[in-house]
Amino acid sequence: MHEFTPAVEETVRELAQLSVERLASQVPLNGTVAPELLDAAAGKTITAAGLGGPEAVRLWTEVLAPACIAVDHPRYLSFIPGAPTKLAAAFDMLVGVSSVYAGSWLEVAGAAFAENQALRWIADLAGLPDTAGGTFVQGGTVGTPSALIAARETARRRRSRTPRRWAVCVTEETHSSVTHALRVVMDVDTVLVPGDERGRMTGTALRATVERLAPERRHGVFAVVATADSTNLGIVDDIADIGEVARENDWWLHVDGAYGGAGLAAPAVRHLYDGIEQADSFIVDPHKWCCQPGPRRRPESTWPSRP
CATH: 3.30.499.10, 3.40.640.10, 3.40.50.1980, 1.20.1250.20. Which one for 109-304? Predict the structure, then answer.
């Protein structure tokens, strides 16, 4: 099963050629296929003897691939498109066959070094300190909650009295995965801060909203989530103003740049992110505006920026 036999080599070369052809040309947009139609077209795919390389390739090219929408297609305007560069996608092929387990420095010092370089580059774009650490994790339901769990633990250590309920300040534009994780995973309350005429959270609105809370609920606030480019409307909150309020109250400032945080690299819009250097944690998806492969696994980078 693990030997590189002539039959395996033949299939590998066919896969390599198909990959080159995919990179060299734009495939059709394709579309969604009903489960019963796929079941009829594909038939039984898991068998005792196995499909074998040629049949697996045929099944993919003729049945399964056409049932997958090409998210790098110029006509794909729904949800979150992926636009990896050709070289990035090609290098992903090599990494895929290299059996690299990027778990610890002991096994993959080279891969860990490369990841750390990428993390450091983005952290520097945000102006985070040299002591900031980072990691690649799976999806918004892991990255942001991980940062906010660290925020809550920090608040527990710093406060002499634990509130009955913890709370995090958000807006209506805060991504649903964040608010869902706060309620379901962390079991904390959310304090809804009204956005301005453009939907942005501002420090003025944040301060006024929290001041109107009952004392016990106000005591429960331990963090605020600022959005750095919302998925639907491209809204960037007033991070500098929010950061000032967070410092005044000793709250953790988390910046959710999962969708548009890579705009930090664009000089024309860099000013929109002013204040992000105050963040205690920051998250961004490289598979979006950083043009890296990954819509199939949704890697995100997150930094607790303070030791």
Answer: 3.40.640.10
